[in-house]
Protein 1
Amino acid sequence: DVKVTQSSRYLVKRTGEKVFLECVQDMDHENMFWYRQDPGLGLRLIYFSYDVKMKEKGDIPEGYSVSREKKERFSLILESASTNQTSMYLCASSFSEDEQFFGPGTRLTVL
Amino acid sequence: QKEVEQNSGPLSVPEGAIASLNCTYSDRGSQSFFWYRQYSGKSPELIMSIYSNGDKEDGRFTAQLNKASQYVSLLIRDSQPSDSATYLCAVNGYTGGFKTIFGAGTRLFVKA
Protein backbone atom coordinates (compact mmCIF):
# COMPACT_ATOMS: atom_id res chain seq x y z
CA ASP A 1 0.00 0.00 0.00
CA VAL A 2 1.10 3.51 -0.73
CA LYS A 3 1.89 5.42 2.39
CA VAL A 4 2.07 9.17 2.60
CA THR A 5 3.03 10.56 5.97
CA GLN A 6 3.05 14.11 7.26
CA SER A 7 5.25 15.34 10.08
CA SER A 8 2.49 16.60 12.37
CA ARG A 9 -1.27 16.09 12.73
CA TYR A 10 -1.77 19.28 14.71
CA LEU A 11 0.44 22.35 14.91
CA VAL A 12 0.04 25.66 16.70
CA LYS A 13 2.32 28.55 15.76
CA ARG A 14 2.49 32.28 16.37
CA THR A 15 2.23 35.03 13.78
CA GLY A 16 5.59 35.67 12.14
CA GLU A 17 7.09 32.26 12.90
CA LYS A 18 8.69 30.20 10.17
CA VAL A 19 6.80 26.93 9.77
CA PHE A 20 7.96 23.70 8.12
CA LEU A 21 5.53 21.00 7.07
CA GLU A 22 7.09 17.81 5.83
CA CYS A 23 5.66 15.04 3.69
CA VAL A 24 7.18 11.67 2.88
CA GLN A 25 5.93 9.01 0.45
CA ASP A 26 7.25 5.49 0.12
CA MET A 27 6.13 4.45 -3.38
CA ASP A 28 8.70 6.21 -5.55
CA HIS A 29 6.05 8.56 -6.95
CA GLU A 30 7.36 11.30 -9.19
CA ASN A 31 4.60 13.81 -8.45
CA MET A 32 3.98 15.40 -5.08
CA PHE A 33 1.45 18.07 -4.12
CA TRP A 34 0.59 20.44 -1.31
CA TYR A 35 -3.01 21.56 -0.83
CA ARG A 36 -4.89 23.53 1.74
CA GLN A 37 -8.49 22.78 2.52
CA ASP A 38 -10.88 25.29 4.02
CA PRO A 39 -14.62 24.95 4.63
CA GLY A 40 -16.60 25.91 1.54
CA LEU A 41 -13.48 26.38 -0.59
CA GLY A 42 -12.50 22.78 -1.22
CA LEU A 43 -8.97 21.68 -2.01
CA ARG A 44 -6.73 24.42 -3.31
CA LEU A 45 -3.35 23.62 -4.82
CA ILE A 46 -0.43 25.54 -3.31
CA TYR A 47 2.55 23.96 -5.08
CA PHE A 48 3.42 20.75 -6.81
CA SER A 49 6.59 19.01 -7.91
CA TYR A 50 7.05 16.52 -10.72
CA ASP A 51 10.68 15.70 -10.02
CA VAL A 52 13.49 16.28 -7.55
CA LYS A 53 14.39 19.97 -7.30
CA MET A 54 11.50 20.86 -9.61
CA LYS A 55 8.51 22.87 -8.45
CA GLU A 56 5.50 24.53 -9.99
CA LYS A 57 3.18 27.11 -8.50
CA GLY A 58 -0.39 26.10 -7.94
CA ASP A 59 -3.40 28.34 -7.51
CA ILE A 60 -2.43 29.98 -4.21
CA PRO A 61 1.38 30.04 -3.82
CA GLU A 62 1.62 33.44 -2.13
CA GLY A 63 3.17 33.23 1.32
CA TYR A 64 4.47 29.71 0.76
CA SER A 65 7.59 28.06 -0.62
CA VAL A 66 8.55 24.42 -1.13
CA SER A 67 11.59 22.22 -1.26
CA ARG A 68 12.14 18.84 -2.83
CA GLU A 69 15.71 17.68 -2.36
CA LYS A 70 14.87 13.96 -2.41
CA LYS A 71 12.25 12.14 -4.43
CA GLU A 72 10.36 10.86 -1.41
CA ARG A 73 10.21 14.13 0.53
CA PHE A 74 8.36 17.36 -0.21
CA SER A 75 8.42 20.21 2.28
CA LEU A 76 6.09 23.19 2.56
CA ILE A 77 7.49 26.31 4.18
CA LEU A 78 5.59 29.27 5.56
CA GLU A 79 8.27 31.96 5.74
CA SER A 80 6.30 34.18 8.13
CA ALA A 81 3.08 32.60 9.31
CA SER A 82 -0.05 34.70 9.34
CA THR A 83 -3.48 34.06 10.82
CA ASN A 84 -5.03 33.64 7.37
CA GLN A 85 -2.81 30.60 6.88
CA THR A 86 -4.72 28.74 9.58
CA SER A 87 -6.01 25.72 7.67
CA MET A 88 -5.82 21.99 7.01
CA TYR A 89 -2.78 21.18 4.89
CA LEU A 90 -2.82 18.03 2.81
CA CYS A 91 0.09 16.44 1.01
CA ALA A 92 -0.45 14.00 -1.85
CA SER A 93 1.63 11.98 -4.27
CA SER A 94 0.95 10.27 -7.58
CA PHE A 95 2.60 8.31 -10.33
CA SER A 96 2.30 10.15 -13.65
CA GLU A 97 -1.32 11.29 -14.12
CA ASP A 98 -2.90 8.62 -11.99
CA GLU A 99 -4.86 8.95 -8.76
CA GLN A 100 -3.40 10.95 -5.91
CA PHE A 101 -2.70 9.38 -2.53
CA PHE A 102 -3.16 11.72 0.38
CA GLY A 103 -1.43 11.98 3.71
CA PRO A 104 -3.45 12.32 6.95
CA GLY A 105 -3.22 16.11 6.93
CA THR A 106 -1.81 18.74 9.27
CA ARG A 107 -4.21 21.08 10.99
CA LEU A 108 -2.26 24.32 11.45
CA THR A 109 -3.43 27.07 13.73
CA VAL A 110 -1.64 30.42 13.61
CA LEU A 111 -2.32 32.63 16.63
CA GLN B 1 -17.03 29.80 -14.11
CA LYS B 2 -15.57 27.09 -11.89
CA GLU B 3 -13.59 24.45 -13.78
CA VAL B 4 -15.10 21.52 -11.89
CA GLU B 5 -18.55 22.02 -10.44
CA GLN B 6 -20.45 19.97 -7.93
CA ASN B 7 -23.62 20.59 -5.99
CA SER B 8 -22.45 21.20 -2.43
CA GLY B 9 -25.50 19.50 -0.96
CA PRO B 10 -26.17 18.17 1.53
CA LEU B 11 -27.74 15.30 -0.35
CA SER B 12 -29.83 13.19 1.99
CA VAL B 13 -30.99 9.69 1.07
CA PRO B 14 -32.55 6.88 3.11
CA GLU B 15 -30.59 3.73 3.82
CA GLY B 16 -30.86 1.27 0.95
CA ALA B 17 -31.60 3.94 -1.67
CA ILE B 18 -29.46 4.98 -4.65
CA ALA B 19 -27.40 8.13 -4.15
CA SER B 20 -26.56 10.04 -7.31
CA LEU B 21 -23.69 12.52 -7.28
CA ASN B 22 -22.96 14.74 -10.25
CA CYS B 23 -20.02 16.72 -11.55
CA THR B 24 -19.45 18.92 -14.62
CA TYR B 25 -16.12 20.14 -15.96
CA SER B 26 -15.01 22.80 -18.40
CA ASP B 27 -11.82 21.47 -20.05
CA ARG B 28 -12.86 19.46 -23.12
CA GLY B 29 -9.37 17.96 -23.32
CA SER B 30 -9.71 16.21 -19.95
CA GLN B 31 -9.02 12.50 -20.07
CA SER B 32 -8.89 11.24 -16.48
CA PHE B 33 -11.67 11.48 -13.93
CA PHE B 34 -11.71 10.46 -10.29
CA TRP B 35 -14.12 10.25 -7.38
CA TYR B 36 -12.71 10.59 -3.87
CA ARG B 37 -14.51 10.08 -0.58
CA GLN B 38 -13.60 12.21 2.43
CA TYR B 39 -14.90 11.46 5.90
CA SER B 40 -15.08 14.36 8.34
CA GLY B 41 -11.62 15.09 9.74
CA LYS B 42 -9.92 12.63 7.38
CA SER B 43 -8.08 12.96 4.10
CA PRO B 44 -9.57 12.06 0.70
CA GLU B 45 -9.35 8.48 -0.55
CA LEU B 46 -9.99 7.23 -4.07
CA ILE B 47 -13.22 5.38 -4.79
CA MET B 48 -13.29 5.22 -8.57
CA SER B 49 -11.37 6.32 -11.62
CA ILE B 50 -12.81 6.44 -15.12
CA TYR B 51 -11.12 7.25 -18.42
CA SER B 52 -13.57 6.42 -21.23
CA ASN B 53 -17.20 7.17 -21.98
CA GLY B 54 -19.79 4.91 -20.42
CA ASP B 55 -20.19 3.18 -17.09
CA LYS B 56 -17.66 1.59 -14.78
CA GLU B 57 -18.88 -0.54 -11.90
CA ASP B 58 -17.08 -1.54 -8.73
CA GLY B 59 -19.23 -3.18 -6.10
CA ARG B 60 -21.97 -0.78 -5.04
CA PHE B 61 -20.34 2.10 -6.92
CA THR B 62 -20.85 3.03 -10.58
CA ALA B 63 -19.05 5.90 -12.27
CA GLN B 64 -20.56 7.31 -15.46
CA LEU B 65 -18.71 9.50 -17.94
CA ASN B 66 -20.11 11.51 -20.84
CA LYS B 67 -17.33 13.53 -22.46
CA ALA B 68 -19.64 15.15 -25.03
CA SER B 69 -21.70 16.64 -22.21
CA GLN B 70 -18.63 17.15 -19.98
CA TYR B 71 -20.36 15.31 -17.21
CA VAL B 72 -19.29 12.62 -14.77
CA SER B 73 -21.42 11.03 -12.07
CA LEU B 74 -21.17 8.56 -9.23
CA LEU B 75 -24.01 6.25 -8.25
CA ILE B 76 -24.01 4.51 -4.90
CA ARG B 77 -26.44 1.61 -4.73
CA ASP B 78 -27.87 0.27 -1.48
CA SER B 79 -26.57 3.32 0.38
CA GLN B 80 -25.38 2.72 3.92
CA PRO B 81 -24.94 5.16 6.83
CA SER B 82 -21.20 4.50 6.50
CA ASP B 83 -21.36 6.13 3.05
CA SER B 84 -22.09 9.47 4.72
CA ALA B 85 -19.14 11.64 3.70
CA THR B 86 -18.11 14.37 1.29
CA TYR B 87 -17.49 13.15 -2.27
CA LEU B 88 -14.93 15.02 -4.35
CA CYS B 89 -14.86 14.94 -8.12
CA ALA B 90 -11.39 15.41 -9.65
CA VAL B 91 -10.51 15.97 -13.29
CA ASN B 92 -7.11 15.94 -14.95
CA GLY B 93 -7.01 18.98 -17.19
CA TYR B 94 -4.40 19.76 -19.78
CA THR B 95 -5.00 23.38 -20.70
CA GLY B 96 -1.79 25.26 -19.97
CA GLY B 97 -0.14 22.05 -18.76
CA PHE B 98 -1.21 19.02 -16.79
CA LYS B 99 -3.19 19.81 -13.66
CA THR B 100 -5.64 17.98 -11.41
CA ILE B 101 -8.63 20.09 -10.52
CA PHE B 102 -10.90 19.18 -7.61
CA GLY B 103 -14.50 20.13 -7.18
CA ALA B 104 -15.59 21.56 -3.85
CA GLY B 105 -17.39 18.32 -2.99
CA THR B 106 -20.93 17.11 -2.29
CA ARG B 107 -21.91 16.19 1.26
CA LEU B 108 -23.94 13.00 1.42
CA PHE B 109 -26.04 11.90 4.40
CA VAL B 110 -27.50 8.43 4.47
CA LYS B 111 -30.30 8.18 7.03
CA ALA B 112 -30.71 4.90 8.88
Protein 2
Amino acid sequence: AQSVTQLGSHVSVSEGALVLLRCNYSSSVPPYLFWYVQYPNQGLQLLLKYTSAATLVKGINGFEAEFKKSETSFHLTKPSAHMSDAAEYFCAVSPNQAGTALIFGKGTTLSVSS
Amino acid sequence: NAGVTQTPKFRVLKTGQSMTLLCAQDMNHEYMYWYRQDPGMGLRLIHYSVGEGTTAKGEVPDGYNVSRLKKQNFLLGLESAAPSQTSVYFCASSPGTSVKTQYFGPGTRLLVL
Protein backbone atom coordinates (compact mmCIF):
# COMPACT_ATOMS: atom_id res chain seq x y z
CA ALA A 1 0.00 0.00 0.00
CA GLN A 2 1.14 3.50 -0.70
CA SER A 3 1.79 5.96 2.08
CA VAL A 4 3.23 9.38 2.73
CA THR A 5 5.31 10.58 5.66
CA GLN A 6 5.90 14.24 6.37
CA LEU A 7 8.82 14.77 8.72
CA GLY A 8 8.11 17.50 11.23
CA SER A 9 4.61 18.58 12.08
CA HIS A 10 5.80 22.14 12.63
CA VAL A 11 8.58 24.10 10.93
CA SER A 12 9.56 27.64 11.90
CA VAL A 13 11.72 29.91 9.76
CA SER A 14 12.62 33.58 9.67
CA GLU A 15 11.49 35.78 6.82
CA GLY A 16 14.02 35.49 4.00
CA ALA A 17 15.29 32.10 5.14
CA LEU A 18 15.18 28.87 3.17
CA VAL A 19 12.03 26.80 3.51
CA LEU A 20 12.43 23.02 3.46
CA LEU A 21 9.45 20.76 4.08
CA ARG A 22 10.16 17.04 3.94
CA CYS A 23 8.04 14.34 2.36
CA ASN A 24 8.86 10.67 1.88
CA TYR A 25 6.59 8.27 0.09
CA SER A 26 6.14 4.57 -0.15
CA SER A 27 5.08 3.17 -3.48
CA SER A 28 5.75 0.02 -5.46
CA VAL A 29 5.14 1.78 -8.74
CA PRO A 30 6.10 5.24 -10.01
CA PRO A 31 3.72 7.54 -8.20
CA TYR A 32 2.07 10.84 -8.89
CA LEU A 33 3.05 13.24 -6.10
CA PHE A 34 1.49 16.49 -5.00
CA TRP A 35 2.02 19.35 -2.61
CA TYR A 36 -1.03 21.26 -1.43
CA VAL A 37 -1.18 24.36 0.76
CA GLN A 38 -3.96 25.28 3.15
CA TYR A 39 -4.23 28.83 4.46
CA PRO A 40 -6.21 29.36 7.67
CA ASN A 41 -9.89 28.61 7.31
CA GLN A 42 -9.57 27.81 3.63
CA GLY A 43 -9.58 24.75 1.41
CA LEU A 44 -6.55 23.10 -0.12
CA GLN A 45 -4.81 24.71 -3.06
CA LEU A 46 -2.47 22.85 -5.39
CA LEU A 47 1.13 24.09 -5.16
CA LEU A 48 2.74 21.67 -7.59
CA LYS A 49 2.66 18.11 -8.84
CA TYR A 50 5.05 15.49 -10.13
CA THR A 51 3.84 13.32 -12.98
CA SER A 52 7.15 11.80 -14.17
CA ALA A 53 7.85 14.43 -16.82
CA ALA A 54 10.70 16.13 -14.92
CA THR A 55 12.26 15.45 -11.53
CA LEU A 56 12.44 19.14 -10.55
CA VAL A 57 8.96 20.59 -10.42
CA LYS A 58 8.24 24.30 -10.12
CA GLY A 59 5.01 25.45 -8.57
CA ILE A 60 3.24 28.61 -7.60
CA ASN A 61 4.52 31.28 -5.21
CA GLY A 62 8.18 30.38 -5.80
CA PHE A 63 7.97 26.85 -4.43
CA GLU A 64 9.62 23.87 -6.04
CA ALA A 65 10.10 20.20 -5.26
CA GLU A 66 12.51 17.55 -6.44
CA PHE A 67 11.56 13.94 -6.98
CA LYS A 68 14.35 11.60 -5.85
CA LYS A 69 13.51 8.01 -6.58
CA SER A 70 16.58 6.63 -4.80
CA GLU A 71 15.54 8.41 -1.60
CA THR A 72 11.77 8.03 -2.17
CA SER A 73 11.50 11.70 -1.36
CA PHE A 74 9.67 14.73 -2.70
CA HIS A 75 10.81 17.61 -0.50
CA LEU A 76 9.33 21.08 -0.94
CA THR A 77 11.63 24.10 -0.95
CA LYS A 78 11.52 27.86 -1.35
CA PRO A 79 14.71 29.94 -1.32
CA SER A 80 13.32 32.87 0.65
CA ALA A 81 10.34 32.70 2.96
CA HIS A 82 7.68 35.40 3.07
CA MET A 83 5.27 36.07 5.89
CA SER A 84 2.46 35.12 3.53
CA ASP A 85 3.86 31.57 3.27
CA ALA A 86 2.65 30.77 6.77
CA ALA A 87 0.18 27.93 6.27
CA GLU A 88 -0.22 24.18 6.50
CA TYR A 89 1.34 22.11 3.76
CA PHE A 90 0.30 18.63 2.73
CA CYS A 91 2.18 16.12 0.65
CA ALA A 92 0.02 13.55 -1.17
CA VAL A 93 0.51 10.53 -3.38
CA SER A 94 -1.86 9.18 -5.97
CA PRO A 95 -1.93 5.51 -6.85
CA ASN A 96 -1.34 5.00 -10.53
CA GLN A 97 -5.01 4.61 -11.35
CA ALA A 98 -7.26 7.28 -12.75
CA GLY A 99 -9.66 8.74 -10.26
CA THR A 100 -8.30 7.02 -7.17
CA ALA A 101 -8.28 9.22 -4.12
CA LEU A 102 -5.14 10.91 -2.89
CA ILE A 103 -3.31 9.62 0.16
CA PHE A 104 -2.25 12.54 2.31
CA GLY A 105 0.50 13.04 4.81
CA LYS A 106 -0.45 14.47 8.17
CA GLY A 107 0.65 17.95 7.26
CA THR A 108 3.38 20.40 8.24
CA THR A 109 2.56 23.79 9.67
CA LEU A 110 4.98 26.47 8.49
CA SER A 111 5.46 29.52 10.69
CA VAL A 112 7.36 32.55 9.40
CA SER A 113 8.70 35.15 11.82
CA SER A 114 9.89 38.65 11.00
CA ASN B 1 -16.36 29.16 -12.88
CA ALA B 2 -17.10 28.76 -9.19
CA GLY B 3 -15.06 25.54 -9.05
CA VAL B 4 -16.06 23.39 -6.08
CA THR B 5 -18.56 24.82 -3.63
CA GLN B 6 -19.79 23.40 -0.34
CA THR B 7 -22.96 24.08 1.63
CA PRO B 8 -23.18 24.91 4.52
CA LYS B 9 -19.94 26.52 5.66
CA PHE B 10 -20.59 25.83 9.34
CA ARG B 11 -23.11 23.79 11.28
CA VAL B 12 -23.76 22.79 14.88
CA LEU B 13 -25.66 19.57 15.52
CA LYS B 14 -26.82 17.76 18.61
CA THR B 15 -25.96 14.10 19.03
CA GLY B 16 -28.42 11.97 17.11
CA GLN B 17 -29.48 14.65 14.64
CA SER B 18 -29.09 14.16 10.92
CA MET B 19 -27.88 16.45 8.19
CA THR B 20 -26.69 16.52 4.60
CA LEU B 21 -23.65 18.30 3.27
CA LEU B 22 -23.82 19.40 -0.34
CA CYS B 23 -20.91 19.58 -2.74
CA ALA B 24 -21.28 21.04 -6.21
CA GLN B 25 -18.74 21.40 -9.02
CA ASP B 26 -19.09 23.20 -12.33
CA MET B 27 -16.01 21.76 -14.07
CA ASN B 28 -17.76 18.70 -15.52
CA HIS B 29 -15.47 16.46 -13.50
CA GLU B 30 -16.18 12.76 -13.44
CA TYR B 31 -14.77 11.94 -10.01
CA MET B 32 -15.74 13.40 -6.65
CA TYR B 33 -14.54 12.78 -3.12
CA TRP B 34 -15.43 13.51 0.50
CA TYR B 35 -12.61 13.87 3.06
CA ARG B 36 -12.56 14.76 6.71
CA GLN B 37 -9.72 16.72 8.30
CA ASP B 38 -8.84 16.32 11.94
CA PRO B 39 -5.87 17.89 13.77
CA GLY B 40 -2.70 15.87 13.27
CA MET B 41 -4.45 13.35 11.04
CA GLY B 42 -4.21 14.99 7.64
CA LEU B 43 -7.13 14.31 5.31
CA ARG B 44 -8.86 10.96 5.33
CA LEU B 45 -11.17 9.73 2.60
CA ILE B 46 -14.75 9.02 3.60
CA HIS B 47 -16.44 8.09 0.31
CA TYR B 48 -15.85 8.77 -3.34
CA SER B 49 -17.61 8.52 -6.66
CA VAL B 50 -16.22 7.67 -10.08
CA GLY B 51 -19.31 8.78 -11.94
CA GLU B 52 -22.96 9.67 -11.75
CA GLY B 53 -24.89 6.99 -9.89
CA THR B 54 -21.81 5.28 -8.45
CA THR B 55 -20.25 5.55 -4.99
CA ALA B 56 -17.58 3.68 -3.06
CA LYS B 57 -16.26 3.55 0.49
CA GLY B 58 -13.02 5.16 1.50
CA GLU B 59 -10.85 4.83 4.58
CA VAL B 60 -13.39 6.04 7.19
CA PRO B 61 -16.92 5.44 5.84
CA ASP B 62 -18.73 4.39 9.03
CA GLY B 63 -21.56 6.70 10.06
CA TYR B 64 -21.77 8.38 6.65
CA ASN B 65 -23.73 7.83 3.47
CA VAL B 66 -23.38 9.48 0.08
CA SER B 67 -25.28 9.90 -3.13
CA ARG B 68 -24.36 11.09 -6.64
CA LEU B 69 -27.65 11.48 -8.46
CA LYS B 70 -26.31 14.23 -10.70
CA LYS B 71 -22.81 14.47 -12.10
CA GLN B 72 -22.21 17.90 -10.62
CA ASN B 73 -23.41 17.11 -7.08
CA PHE B 74 -22.08 14.83 -4.36
CA LEU B 75 -24.02 14.66 -1.10
CA LEU B 76 -22.67 13.48 2.24
CA GLY B 77 -25.20 12.42 4.85
CA LEU B 78 -24.95 11.85 8.56
CA GLU B 79 -27.96 9.85 9.73
CA SER B 80 -27.29 10.07 13.47
CA ALA B 81 -24.50 12.48 14.31
CA ALA B 82 -21.96 11.62 17.00
CA PRO B 83 -19.38 13.87 18.70
CA SER B 84 -16.64 11.86 16.95
CA GLN B 85 -17.91 13.31 13.68
CA THR B 86 -16.92 16.81 14.74
CA SER B 87 -14.51 17.73 11.98
CA VAL B 88 -13.89 19.83 8.91
CA TYR B 89 -15.26 18.18 5.78
CA PHE B 90 -13.77 18.81 2.37
CA CYS B 91 -15.17 17.88 -0.99
CA ALA B 92 -12.91 17.50 -4.01
CA SER B 93 -13.29 16.67 -7.67
CA SER B 94 -11.01 15.55 -10.47
CA PRO B 95 -11.37 15.00 -14.21
CA GLY B 96 -10.84 11.30 -13.72
CA THR B 97 -8.58 10.69 -16.68
CA SER B 98 -4.81 10.91 -16.75
CA VAL B 99 -5.05 14.17 -14.83
CA LYS B 100 -5.08 13.15 -11.21
CA THR B 101 -5.13 16.62 -9.68
CA GLN B 102 -7.96 17.11 -7.25
CA TYR B 103 -9.66 20.45 -6.75
CA PHE B 104 -10.97 21.21 -3.30
CA GLY B 105 -13.90 23.12 -1.93
CA PRO B 106 -13.60 25.59 0.97
CA GLY B 107 -14.77 23.09 3.59
CA THR B 108 -17.64 22.68 6.03
CA ARG B 109 -16.98 22.94 9.76
CA LEU B 110 -19.24 20.61 11.71
CA LEU B 111 -19.57 20.61 15.48
CA VAL B 112 -21.56 17.82 17.10
CA LEU B 113 -22.50 18.44 20.72
